[in-house]
Specification:
Length: 579
Protein backbone atom coordinates (compact mmCIF):
# COMPACT_ATOMS: atom_id res chain seq x y z
CA UNK A 1 0.00 0.00 0.00
CA UNK A 2 2.83 2.40 0.86
CA UNK A 3 4.56 1.70 -2.42
CA UNK A 4 1.28 2.23 -4.27
CA UNK A 5 0.77 5.57 -2.55
CA UNK A 6 4.34 6.60 -3.33
CA UNK A 7 3.94 5.67 -6.97
CA UNK A 8 0.65 7.60 -7.13
CA UNK A 9 2.32 10.63 -5.57
CA UNK A 10 5.22 10.35 -8.01
CA UNK A 11 2.86 10.11 -10.96
CA UNK A 12 0.98 13.18 -9.76
CA UNK A 13 4.23 15.09 -9.34
CA UNK A 14 5.38 14.17 -12.84
CA UNK A 15 2.04 15.11 -14.40
CA UNK A 16 2.06 18.36 -12.43
CA UNK A 17 5.50 19.31 -13.72
CA UNK A 18 4.60 18.32 -17.27
CA UNK A 19 1.52 20.56 -17.11
CA UNK A 20 3.62 23.47 -15.86
CA UNK A 21 6.17 22.94 -18.65
CA UNK A 22 3.34 22.74 -21.21
CA UNK A 23 1.82 26.03 -20.07
CA UNK A 24 5.26 27.67 -20.00
CA UNK A 25 5.98 26.55 -23.56
CA UNK A 26 2.65 27.92 -24.83
CA UNK A 27 3.85 31.43 -24.06
CA UNK A 28 7.63 31.10 -24.14
CA UNK A 29 7.90 29.68 -27.66
CA UNK A 30 6.06 32.55 -29.44
CA UNK A 31 7.91 35.18 -27.38
CA UNK A 32 11.34 33.62 -28.00
CA UNK A 33 10.59 33.07 -31.69
CA UNK A 34 9.45 36.67 -32.13
CA UNK A 35 12.53 38.06 -30.36
CA UNK A 36 14.82 35.83 -32.44
CA UNK A 37 13.17 37.13 -35.62
CA UNK A 38 13.65 40.73 -34.46
CA UNK A 39 17.30 40.13 -33.56
CA UNK A 40 17.95 38.65 -36.99
CA UNK A 41 16.70 41.81 -38.69
CA UNK A 42 17.97 44.38 -36.20
CA UNK A 43 21.65 43.28 -36.35
CA UNK A 44 22.19 44.57 -39.88
CA UNK A 45 25.34 46.69 -39.83
CA UNK A 46 24.65 48.31 -43.21
CA UNK A 47 21.15 49.31 -42.13
CA UNK A 48 22.53 50.64 -38.83
CA UNK A 49 25.03 52.80 -40.70
CA UNK A 50 22.29 54.05 -43.01
CA UNK A 51 20.09 54.81 -40.00
CA UNK A 52 22.59 57.17 -38.44
CA UNK A 53 23.07 58.90 -41.76
CA UNK A 54 19.42 59.90 -41.68
CA UNK A 55 19.14 63.59 -40.76
CA UNK A 56 16.02 63.06 -38.63
CA UNK A 57 17.10 59.94 -36.73
CA UNK A 58 18.98 61.49 -33.81
CA UNK A 59 16.47 64.27 -33.25
CA UNK A 60 13.61 61.77 -33.39
CA UNK A 61 15.32 59.47 -30.88
CA UNK A 62 15.98 62.37 -28.51
CA UNK A 63 12.34 63.41 -28.84
CA UNK A 64 11.12 59.89 -28.02
CA UNK A 65 13.35 59.65 -24.95
CA UNK A 66 12.25 63.13 -23.82
CA UNK A 67 8.51 62.45 -24.10
CA UNK A 68 8.78 59.00 -22.52
CA UNK A 69 10.86 60.11 -19.53
CA UNK A 70 8.92 63.29 -18.78
CA UNK A 71 5.50 61.62 -19.06
CA UNK A 72 6.73 58.63 -17.02
CA UNK A 73 8.14 60.81 -14.23
CA UNK A 74 4.98 62.94 -14.09
CA UNK A 75 2.76 59.85 -13.99
CA UNK A 76 4.95 58.30 -11.28
CA UNK A 77 4.89 61.38 -9.05
CA UNK A 78 1.14 61.87 -9.54
CA UNK A 79 0.38 58.24 -8.75
CA UNK A 80 2.63 58.37 -5.67
CA UNK A 81 0.80 61.43 -4.32
CA UNK A 82 -2.64 59.92 -5.01
CA UNK A 83 -1.69 56.62 -3.38
CA UNK A 84 -0.45 58.52 -0.34
CA UNK A 85 -3.72 60.48 -0.10
CA UNK A 86 -5.82 57.34 -0.55
CA UNK A 87 -3.85 55.38 2.06
CA UNK A 88 -3.72 58.13 4.69
CA UNK A 89 -7.38 59.12 4.35
CA UNK A 90 -8.53 55.52 3.69
CA UNK A 91 -10.32 56.48 0.49
CA UNK A 92 -8.37 54.34 -1.96
CA UNK A 93 -10.97 51.59 -2.13
CA UNK A 94 -13.66 54.16 -2.87
CA UNK A 95 -11.55 55.63 -5.64
CA UNK A 96 -11.13 52.16 -7.11
CA UNK A 97 -14.79 52.28 -8.14
CA UNK A 98 -13.95 55.09 -10.60
CA UNK A 99 -10.67 53.67 -11.92
CA UNK A 100 -12.23 51.15 -14.38
CA UNK A 101 -13.79 53.98 -16.38
CA UNK A 102 -10.40 55.71 -16.56
CA UNK A 103 -8.59 52.50 -17.48
CA UNK A 104 -11.18 51.73 -20.15
CA UNK A 105 -10.40 54.95 -22.02
CA UNK A 106 -7.96 53.85 -24.77
CA UNK A 107 -4.83 55.83 -25.54
CA UNK A 108 -6.00 56.78 -29.02
CA UNK A 109 -9.35 58.01 -27.69
CA UNK A 110 -7.59 60.22 -25.14
CA UNK A 111 -5.34 61.62 -27.88
CA UNK A 112 -8.33 62.42 -30.10
CA UNK A 113 -10.13 64.10 -27.19
CA UNK A 114 -7.11 66.31 -26.53
CA UNK A 115 -7.02 67.25 -30.20
CA UNK A 116 -10.65 68.38 -29.92
CA UNK A 117 -9.71 70.56 -26.93
CA UNK A 118 -6.24 71.85 -27.76
CA UNK A 119 -6.06 72.19 -31.55
CA UNK A 120 -6.11 75.75 -33.03
CA UNK A 121 -9.79 75.23 -33.86
CA UNK A 122 -10.44 73.36 -30.63
CA UNK A 123 -12.81 74.02 -27.82
CA UNK A 124 -10.31 75.70 -25.50
CA UNK A 125 -9.61 78.53 -27.91
CA UNK A 126 -13.27 78.81 -28.90
CA UNK A 127 -14.21 79.52 -25.28
CA UNK A 128 -12.03 82.65 -25.17
CA UNK A 129 -12.43 83.83 -28.77
CA UNK A 130 -12.97 86.46 -29.93
CA UNK A 131 -13.58 88.10 -26.52
CA UNK A 132 -10.06 87.65 -25.11
CA UNK A 133 -8.03 86.78 -28.20
CA UNK A 134 -9.73 88.69 -31.00
CA UNK A 135 -9.43 85.65 -33.28
CA UNK A 136 -12.13 85.27 -35.92
CA UNK A 137 -10.38 82.28 -37.53
CA UNK A 138 -8.12 79.55 -36.13
CA UNK A 139 -4.55 80.80 -35.66
CA UNK A 140 -1.56 79.08 -37.21
CA UNK A 141 -0.33 77.55 -33.98
CA UNK A 142 1.23 74.15 -33.26
CA UNK A 143 -0.74 73.27 -30.16
CA UNK A 144 -1.33 69.54 -30.67
CA UNK A 145 1.60 68.46 -32.83
CA UNK A 146 4.09 70.87 -31.28
CA UNK A 147 7.81 70.31 -31.90
CA UNK A 148 8.50 69.68 -28.20
CA UNK A 149 5.95 66.88 -27.90
CA UNK A 150 4.11 68.59 -25.05
CA UNK A 151 0.69 67.43 -26.27
CA UNK A 152 1.95 63.85 -26.43
CA UNK A 153 3.43 64.16 -22.93
CA UNK A 154 0.10 65.42 -21.59
CA UNK A 155 -1.83 62.53 -23.16
CA UNK A 156 0.64 59.91 -21.91
CA UNK A 157 0.61 61.46 -18.43
CA UNK A 158 -3.19 61.36 -18.18
CA UNK A 159 -3.36 57.79 -19.46
CA UNK A 160 -0.61 56.21 -17.37
CA UNK A 161 -1.65 57.57 -13.97
CA UNK A 162 -4.75 55.29 -13.69
CA UNK A 163 -2.63 52.26 -14.67
CA UNK A 164 -0.07 52.91 -11.91
CA UNK A 165 -2.89 53.62 -9.46
CA UNK A 166 -4.61 50.36 -10.30
CA UNK A 167 -1.47 48.27 -9.82
CA UNK A 168 -0.62 50.07 -6.58
CA UNK A 169 -4.16 49.63 -5.29
CA UNK A 170 -4.08 45.89 -6.04
CA UNK A 171 -1.04 45.63 -3.78
CA UNK A 172 -2.77 47.59 -1.02
CA UNK A 173 -5.87 45.37 -1.29
CA UNK A 174 -3.92 42.26 -0.26
CA UNK A 175 -5.01 41.51 3.31
CA UNK A 176 -1.60 40.36 4.51
CA UNK A 177 0.27 43.34 3.08
CA UNK A 178 -2.38 45.87 4.08
CA UNK A 179 -2.45 44.73 7.71
CA UNK A 180 1.34 44.76 7.97
CA UNK A 181 1.73 48.18 6.36
CA UNK A 182 -1.06 49.69 8.44
CA UNK A 183 0.56 48.44 11.64
CA UNK A 184 3.95 49.84 10.57
CA UNK A 185 2.30 53.11 9.56
CA UNK A 186 0.59 53.35 12.96
CA UNK A 187 3.86 52.62 14.73
CA UNK A 188 5.59 55.43 12.81
CA UNK A 189 2.86 57.85 13.89
CA UNK A 190 3.29 56.86 17.53
CA UNK A 191 6.97 57.75 17.14
CA UNK A 192 5.99 61.32 16.26
CA UNK A 193 5.88 61.27 12.46
CA UNK A 194 2.93 63.09 10.81
CA UNK A 195 0.74 61.01 8.47
CA UNK A 196 2.46 62.05 5.22
CA UNK A 197 5.95 61.46 6.62
CA UNK A 198 4.91 58.12 8.12
CA UNK A 199 3.62 56.95 4.73
CA UNK A 200 6.68 58.27 2.89
CA UNK A 201 9.19 56.63 5.23
CA UNK A 202 7.46 53.32 5.98
CA UNK A 203 4.90 52.39 3.32
CA UNK A 204 6.11 54.07 0.16
CA UNK A 205 9.62 52.49 0.00
CA UNK A 206 8.00 49.05 0.08
CA UNK A 207 5.20 49.93 -2.34
CA UNK A 208 7.53 51.65 -4.81
CA UNK A 209 9.65 48.54 -5.26
CA UNK A 210 6.55 46.53 -6.25
CA UNK A 211 5.75 49.13 -8.94
CA UNK A 212 9.05 48.86 -10.80
CA UNK A 213 7.67 46.70 -13.61
CA UNK A 214 4.63 48.97 -14.16
CA UNK A 215 6.92 52.01 -14.22
CA UNK A 216 9.16 50.33 -16.78
CA UNK A 217 6.06 49.47 -18.83
CA UNK A 218 4.98 53.14 -18.74
CA UNK A 219 8.38 54.39 -19.94
CA UNK A 220 8.63 51.66 -22.59
CA UNK A 221 5.17 52.47 -23.90
CA UNK A 222 6.10 56.14 -24.18
CA UNK A 223 9.21 55.21 -26.14
CA UNK A 224 7.43 52.94 -28.62
CA UNK A 225 3.95 54.46 -28.93
CA UNK A 226 2.80 54.98 -32.53
CA UNK A 227 -0.96 55.61 -32.59
CA UNK A 228 -0.89 58.48 -30.06
CA UNK A 229 2.22 59.93 -31.70
CA UNK A 230 0.48 59.94 -35.08
CA UNK A 231 -2.41 61.93 -33.60
CA UNK A 232 -0.67 64.24 -31.11
CA UNK A 233 3.05 63.91 -31.68
CA UNK A 234 5.32 66.23 -33.62
CA UNK A 235 5.85 65.73 -37.33
CA UNK A 236 9.18 67.41 -38.17
CA UNK A 237 10.72 65.20 -37.02
CA UNK A 238 8.26 62.62 -35.73
CA UNK A 239 9.09 60.35 -32.84
CA UNK A 240 11.56 57.53 -33.40
CA UNK A 241 8.82 54.87 -33.21
CA UNK A 242 6.82 56.64 -35.93
CA UNK A 243 9.93 56.82 -38.12
CA UNK A 244 10.47 53.10 -37.63
CA UNK A 245 6.83 52.41 -38.48
CA UNK A 246 7.06 54.52 -41.64
CA UNK A 247 10.23 52.78 -42.79
CA UNK A 248 8.80 49.33 -42.14
CA UNK A 249 5.81 50.19 -44.33
CA UNK A 250 8.02 51.33 -47.21
CA UNK A 251 8.26 49.19 -50.35
CA UNK A 252 12.05 49.62 -50.41
CA UNK A 253 13.84 46.69 -48.77
CA UNK A 254 16.62 48.97 -47.50
CA UNK A 255 14.06 51.21 -45.81
CA UNK A 256 12.43 48.18 -44.18
CA UNK A 257 15.80 47.03 -42.85
CA UNK A 258 16.40 50.51 -41.45
CA UNK A 259 13.01 50.36 -39.71
CA UNK A 260 13.92 47.03 -38.10
CA UNK A 261 17.23 48.46 -36.88
CA UNK A 262 15.38 51.48 -35.46
CA UNK A 263 13.16 49.07 -33.51
CA UNK A 264 16.31 47.43 -32.19
CA UNK A 265 17.63 50.83 -31.05
CA UNK A 266 14.38 51.41 -29.15
CA UNK A 267 14.85 48.02 -27.52
CA UNK A 268 18.32 49.07 -26.42
CA UNK A 269 16.87 52.22 -24.86
CA UNK A 270 14.35 50.12 -22.94
CA UNK A 271 17.12 47.77 -21.79
CA UNK A 272 19.05 50.77 -20.45
CA UNK A 273 15.95 51.99 -18.59
CA UNK A 274 15.41 48.50 -17.19
CA UNK A 275 19.00 48.36 -15.95
CA UNK A 276 18.52 51.64 -14.11
CA UNK A 277 15.06 50.90 -12.68
CA UNK A 278 15.29 47.18 -11.96
CA UNK A 279 18.91 46.43 -11.18
CA UNK A 280 20.74 49.67 -10.36
CA UNK A 281 20.47 49.77 -6.58
CA UNK A 282 21.65 53.33 -6.01
CA UNK A 283 19.72 54.69 -8.99
CA UNK A 284 16.65 52.69 -8.07
CA UNK A 285 16.66 54.03 -4.53
CA UNK A 286 17.19 57.64 -5.61
CA UNK A 287 14.65 57.60 -8.45
CA UNK A 288 11.92 55.41 -7.02
CA UNK A 289 12.06 56.15 -3.31
CA UNK A 290 14.02 59.19 -2.19
CA UNK A 291 13.08 61.23 -5.22
CA UNK A 292 9.40 60.70 -4.53
CA UNK A 293 9.34 61.19 -0.78
CA UNK A 294 9.19 64.97 -1.04
CA UNK A 295 6.19 64.76 -3.36
CA UNK A 296 4.47 62.29 -1.05
CA UNK A 297 5.10 64.41 2.05
CA UNK A 298 4.41 67.89 0.68
CA UNK A 299 1.95 69.41 1.13
CA UNK A 300 1.33 67.55 4.39
CA UNK A 301 -1.65 65.19 4.44
CA UNK A 302 -3.28 66.71 7.50
CA UNK A 303 -6.38 68.82 8.11
CA UNK A 304 -5.26 72.43 7.61
CA UNK A 305 -6.09 75.19 10.05
CA UNK A 306 -8.55 77.65 8.60
CA UNK A 307 -7.92 81.39 8.83
CA UNK A 308 -11.66 82.07 8.95
CA UNK A 309 -12.79 81.44 12.52
CA UNK A 310 -16.00 81.71 14.40
CA UNK A 311 -16.67 84.04 17.32
CA UNK A 312 -15.12 81.47 19.69
CA UNK A 313 -11.89 81.23 17.68
CA UNK A 314 -12.76 77.80 16.25
CA UNK A 315 -12.79 77.32 12.46
CA UNK A 316 -16.31 76.70 11.11
CA UNK A 317 -16.88 73.04 10.26
CA UNK A 318 -17.81 73.70 6.65
CA UNK A 319 -14.63 75.77 6.13
CA UNK A 320 -12.43 73.01 7.52
CA UNK A 321 -14.17 70.40 5.37
CA UNK A 322 -13.85 72.51 2.23
CA UNK A 323 -10.18 73.20 2.83
CA UNK A 324 -9.53 69.56 3.65
CA UNK A 325 -11.21 68.46 0.44
CA UNK A 326 -9.28 70.96 -1.66
CA UNK A 327 -6.07 70.13 0.18
CA UNK A 328 -6.26 66.36 -0.05
CA UNK A 329 -8.55 65.49 -2.93
CA UNK A 330 -7.90 68.31 -5.40
CA UNK A 331 -5.43 66.23 -7.43
CA UNK A 332 -7.86 63.32 -7.71
CA UNK A 333 -10.68 65.72 -8.66
CA UNK A 334 -8.47 67.30 -11.33
CA UNK A 335 -7.77 63.87 -12.84
CA UNK A 336 -11.47 63.03 -12.92
CA UNK A 337 -12.33 66.41 -14.46
CA UNK A 338 -9.72 65.90 -17.19
CA UNK A 339 -11.30 62.57 -18.13
CA UNK A 340 -14.83 63.95 -17.94
CA UNK A 341 -13.89 66.80 -20.26
CA UNK A 342 -12.33 64.29 -22.66
CA UNK A 343 -15.46 62.15 -22.73
CA UNK A 344 -17.63 65.23 -23.16
CA UNK A 345 -15.53 66.41 -26.12
CA UNK A 346 -15.83 63.02 -27.83
CA UNK A 347 -19.59 62.93 -27.23
CA UNK A 348 -20.18 66.40 -28.69
CA UNK A 349 -17.68 65.93 -31.50
CA UNK A 350 -19.38 62.72 -32.63
CA UNK A 351 -22.71 64.50 -33.29
CA UNK A 352 -21.39 67.83 -34.58
CA UNK A 353 -22.03 68.95 -38.11
CA UNK A 354 -21.15 72.40 -39.41
CA UNK A 355 -19.10 74.10 -36.68
CA UNK A 356 -17.62 77.45 -37.79
CA UNK A 357 -14.93 79.12 -35.70
CA UNK A 358 -15.22 80.74 -33.13
CA UNK A 359 -18.68 79.36 -32.25
CA UNK A 360 -18.60 77.42 -28.99
CA UNK A 361 -21.35 75.01 -30.08
CA UNK A 362 -21.90 73.40 -33.47
CA UNK A 363 -24.25 75.20 -35.84
CA UNK A 364 -25.65 71.83 -36.95
CA UNK A 365 -26.12 68.51 -35.19
CA UNK A 366 -26.05 65.22 -37.03
CA UNK A 367 -26.15 61.49 -36.27
CA UNK A 368 -24.46 60.59 -39.55
CA UNK A 369 -21.25 59.40 -37.93
CA UNK A 370 -23.10 57.08 -35.55
CA UNK A 371 -25.20 55.77 -38.42
CA UNK A 372 -22.01 54.87 -40.26
CA UNK A 373 -20.66 53.23 -37.09
CA UNK A 374 -23.87 51.21 -36.84
CA UNK A 375 -23.43 50.01 -40.41
CA UNK A 376 -19.82 48.93 -39.73
CA UNK A 377 -20.86 45.57 -38.31
CA UNK A 378 -17.67 43.87 -39.48
CA UNK A 379 -15.51 46.41 -37.65
CA UNK A 380 -17.55 46.04 -34.46
CA UNK A 381 -17.48 42.26 -34.65
CA UNK A 382 -13.72 42.15 -35.28
CA UNK A 383 -13.04 44.42 -32.30
CA UNK A 384 -15.32 42.55 -29.91
CA UNK A 385 -14.35 39.04 -31.00
CA UNK A 386 -10.61 39.72 -30.90
CA UNK A 387 -10.80 41.31 -27.45
CA UNK A 388 -13.07 38.62 -26.05
CA UNK A 389 -10.98 35.74 -27.39
CA UNK A 390 -7.59 37.15 -26.38
CA UNK A 391 -8.74 38.26 -22.90
CA UNK A 392 -10.42 34.91 -22.19
CA UNK A 393 -7.44 32.88 -23.39
CA UNK A 394 -5.01 34.97 -21.36
CA UNK A 395 -7.11 34.77 -18.20
CA UNK A 396 -7.44 30.99 -18.52
CA UNK A 397 -3.68 30.66 -19.03
CA UNK A 398 -2.88 32.92 -16.07
CA UNK A 399 -5.24 31.00 -13.80
CA UNK A 400 -3.68 27.68 -14.82
CA UNK A 401 -0.17 29.05 -14.43
CA UNK A 402 -0.75 30.58 -11.01
CA UNK A 403 -2.45 27.39 -9.82
CA UNK A 404 0.20 24.95 -11.07
CA UNK A 405 3.55 26.73 -11.24
CA UNK A 406 5.78 26.52 -8.14
CA UNK A 407 6.70 29.91 -6.74
CA UNK A 408 10.37 29.43 -7.68
CA UNK A 409 9.41 28.74 -11.30
CA UNK A 410 7.07 31.70 -11.37
CA UNK A 411 9.70 34.04 -9.91
CA UNK A 412 12.25 32.85 -12.48
CA UNK A 413 9.93 33.16 -15.50
CA UNK A 414 8.08 36.30 -14.41
CA UNK A 415 10.44 38.79 -16.15
CA UNK A 416 10.17 36.74 -19.34
CA UNK A 417 6.37 36.69 -19.19
CA UNK A 418 6.23 40.46 -18.66
CA UNK A 419 8.50 41.25 -21.61
CA UNK A 420 5.66 42.07 -24.07
CA UNK A 421 4.56 44.82 -21.69
CA UNK A 422 7.95 46.51 -21.42
CA UNK A 423 9.34 46.23 -24.95
CA UNK A 424 8.15 48.67 -27.64
CA UNK A 425 5.15 47.50 -29.64
CA UNK A 426 7.02 48.03 -32.91
CA UNK A 427 9.47 45.29 -31.82
CA UNK A 428 6.71 42.78 -31.26
CA UNK A 429 5.09 43.72 -34.54
CA UNK A 430 8.25 42.79 -36.44
CA UNK A 431 8.71 39.54 -34.54
CA UNK A 432 5.10 38.40 -34.54
CA UNK A 433 4.67 39.28 -38.20
CA UNK A 434 7.71 37.15 -39.07
CA UNK A 435 6.33 34.26 -37.02
CA UNK A 436 2.90 34.64 -38.66
CA UNK A 437 4.49 34.56 -42.11
CA UNK A 438 6.47 31.43 -41.29
CA UNK A 439 3.49 29.46 -39.94
CA UNK A 440 1.18 30.93 -42.63
CA UNK A 441 -1.10 32.70 -40.16
CA UNK A 442 -0.55 36.19 -41.60
CA UNK A 443 -3.94 37.75 -42.29
CA UNK A 444 -5.73 34.91 -40.44
CA UNK A 445 -7.98 35.05 -37.39
CA UNK A 446 -5.86 32.62 -35.38
CA UNK A 447 -2.67 34.58 -36.01
CA UNK A 448 -4.32 37.86 -35.05
CA UNK A 449 -5.75 36.40 -31.83
CA UNK A 450 -2.29 35.05 -30.97
CA UNK A 451 -0.69 38.46 -31.57
CA UNK A 452 -3.26 40.17 -29.36
CA UNK A 453 -2.88 37.50 -26.68
CA UNK A 454 0.89 38.05 -26.51
CA UNK A 455 0.29 41.75 -25.84
CA UNK A 456 -2.58 41.19 -23.39
CA UNK A 457 -1.02 38.42 -21.27
CA UNK A 458 1.38 40.50 -19.11
CA UNK A 459 -1.36 42.96 -18.12
CA UNK A 460 -3.71 40.16 -17.07
CA UNK A 461 -0.93 38.42 -15.14
CA UNK A 462 0.10 41.64 -13.40
CA UNK A 463 -3.50 42.35 -12.39
CA UNK A 464 -4.23 38.80 -11.21
CA UNK A 465 -0.97 37.96 -9.44
CA UNK A 466 -1.48 39.95 -6.19
CA UNK A 467 -4.93 38.44 -5.63
CA UNK A 468 -3.61 34.91 -6.01
CA UNK A 469 -0.73 35.60 -3.67
CA UNK A 470 -3.10 36.89 -1.00
CA UNK A 471 -5.06 33.61 -0.76
CA UNK A 472 -4.32 31.71 2.44
CA UNK A 473 -2.89 28.32 1.47
CA UNK A 474 -4.24 26.78 4.68
CA UNK A 475 -7.76 26.89 3.21
CA UNK A 476 -6.81 24.15 0.75
CA UNK A 477 -5.44 22.00 3.54
CA UNK A 478 -8.66 22.43 5.53
CA UNK A 479 -10.75 21.46 2.48
CA UNK A 480 -8.58 18.39 1.92
CA UNK A 481 -8.92 17.36 5.58
CA UNK A 482 -12.71 17.48 5.10
CA UNK A 483 -12.45 15.04 2.25
CA UNK A 484 -13.12 17.52 -0.55
CA UNK A 485 -11.21 17.30 -3.81
CA UNK A 486 -9.04 20.08 -5.17
CA UNK A 487 -11.63 20.91 -7.83
CA UNK A 488 -14.32 21.23 -5.16
CA UNK A 489 -12.09 23.59 -3.20
CA UNK A 490 -11.38 25.70 -6.29
CA UNK A 491 -15.02 26.00 -7.38
CA UNK A 492 -16.57 26.41 -3.93
CA UNK A 493 -13.94 28.37 -1.98
CA UNK A 494 -10.97 29.82 -3.83
CA UNK A 495 -12.39 31.06 -7.13
CA UNK A 496 -15.48 32.66 -5.54
CA UNK A 497 -13.09 34.65 -3.33
CA UNK A 498 -11.03 35.63 -6.36
CA UNK A 499 -13.99 36.38 -8.62
CA UNK A 500 -13.69 40.22 -8.36
CA UNK A 501 -9.99 40.03 -9.25
CA UNK A 502 -10.61 37.48 -12.03
CA UNK A 503 -13.27 39.62 -13.65
CA UNK A 504 -11.21 42.80 -13.27
CA UNK A 505 -8.20 41.12 -14.90
CA UNK A 506 -10.42 39.86 -17.72
CA UNK A 507 -11.80 43.37 -18.28
CA UNK A 508 -8.28 44.83 -18.32
CA UNK A 509 -7.28 42.26 -20.92
CA UNK A 510 -10.32 43.19 -23.02
CA UNK A 511 -9.44 46.90 -22.84
CA UNK A 512 -5.79 46.25 -23.78
CA UNK A 513 -6.87 44.21 -26.81
CA UNK A 514 -9.30 46.89 -27.98
CA UNK A 515 -6.48 49.45 -27.88
CA UNK A 516 -4.07 47.39 -30.04
CA UNK A 517 -3.17 49.19 -33.25
CA UNK A 518 0.11 47.92 -34.70
CA UNK A 519 -0.48 44.15 -34.20
CA UNK A 520 -3.88 44.46 -35.85
CA UNK A 521 -2.42 46.41 -38.75
CA UNK A 522 0.55 44.15 -39.47
CA UNK A 523 -0.35 40.61 -38.40
CA UNK A 524 -3.87 41.13 -39.73
CA UNK A 525 -2.32 42.29 -43.05
CA UNK A 526 -4.92 45.04 -43.30
CA UNK A 527 -7.76 42.53 -43.68
CA UNK A 528 -9.34 43.17 -40.30
CA UNK A 529 -10.56 46.64 -39.45
CA UNK A 530 -11.13 47.41 -35.79
CA UNK A 531 -12.48 50.44 -33.98
CA UNK A 532 -8.93 51.50 -33.09
CA UNK A 533 -7.54 51.28 -36.63
CA UNK A 534 -10.53 53.22 -37.95
CA UNK A 535 -10.19 55.92 -35.26
CA UNK A 536 -6.47 56.45 -35.91
CA UNK A 537 -6.97 56.53 -39.69
CA UNK A 538 -9.79 59.07 -39.42
CA UNK A 539 -7.78 61.19 -36.97
CA UNK A 540 -4.86 61.30 -39.41
CA UNK A 541 -7.27 62.52 -42.11
CA UNK A 542 -8.74 65.19 -39.82
CA UNK A 543 -12.36 63.98 -40.01
CA UNK A 544 -13.59 65.36 -36.70
CA UNK A 545 -17.08 63.88 -36.50
CA UNK A 546 -16.19 60.36 -37.62
CA UNK A 547 -12.99 60.11 -35.58
CA UNK A 548 -14.91 61.29 -32.50
CA UNK A 549 -17.60 58.66 -33.01
CA UNK A 550 -15.09 55.81 -33.41
CA UNK A 551 -13.02 57.08 -30.47
CA UNK A 552 -16.16 57.23 -28.31
CA UNK A 553 -17.07 53.70 -29.35
CA UNK A 554 -13.51 52.60 -28.63
CA UNK A 555 -14.04 53.89 -25.09
CA UNK A 556 -17.62 52.61 -24.61
CA UNK A 557 -16.79 48.97 -25.38
CA UNK A 558 -14.27 48.55 -22.50
CA UNK A 559 -16.47 50.57 -20.13
CA UNK A 560 -19.37 48.18 -20.83
CA UNK A 561 -17.08 45.21 -20.19
CA UNK A 562 -15.82 46.70 -16.93
CA UNK A 563 -19.42 47.19 -15.82
CA UNK A 564 -20.24 43.59 -16.77
CA UNK A 565 -17.15 42.40 -14.90
CA UNK A 566 -18.21 44.30 -11.78
CA UNK A 567 -21.61 42.59 -11.92
CA UNK A 568 -20.18 39.13 -12.56
CA UNK A 569 -17.45 39.65 -9.97
CA UNK A 570 -19.77 39.74 -6.99
CA UNK A 571 -18.51 36.79 -4.93
CA UNK A 572 -21.77 36.12 -3.07
CA UNK A 573 -23.74 35.72 -6.27
CA UNK A 574 -21.11 33.34 -7.65
CA UNK A 575 -21.07 31.35 -4.44
CA UNK A 576 -24.85 30.89 -4.54
CA UNK A 577 -24.75 29.77 -8.15
CA UNK A 578 -21.88 27.37 -7.38
CA UNK A 579 -23.78 25.82 -4.50
Amino acid sequence: MLLANLSLTARRSVSHRLAVIFFALIVSVPIAWALFAVAGQALDSAALHALWQQPQARSALALSVWTALVSGVLAWLTAARLLAIGFVHQTLMRWMQHLPALLATPHAAMAIALVLWLSPSGWLLRLVSPTLTGFQSPPDWSTTQDPWGLGLILALWLKEVPFLLWIGATQLRRDDIRRRWQSEYGLAQTLGYPPSAAFARVVWPQLALTLRWPLLAVVAYGLGVVDMALILGPTTPPTFAVLSWQWLGDANVAQQAMGAVAAGVLTGCVALMAALIMYGRATRWLLLVRGTMAVVQWPPLTTPVSLATSAHGVPPRWTVRAKRYAHSYGLWAALLVAYLLSWFALAVGSVSGLWPFPHVWPAQWTMGAWQQVGRSTATLWNTFALALASATCCMAWCMAWLELAPRAWHAALRPWLLLPMVLPAIVWVIGLYSVALFVRLEGQWLGLIGAHAVMVLPYVLLALEPAYQSVDARQGAVAASLGRSRWAYLFAVKWPQLMPALMAAWAIGFAVSVAQYLPTLYVGAGRFDTVTTEAVTLAANGQRTFMSAYAALQMLLPIAIFWLASVMGRPRQFARSAS
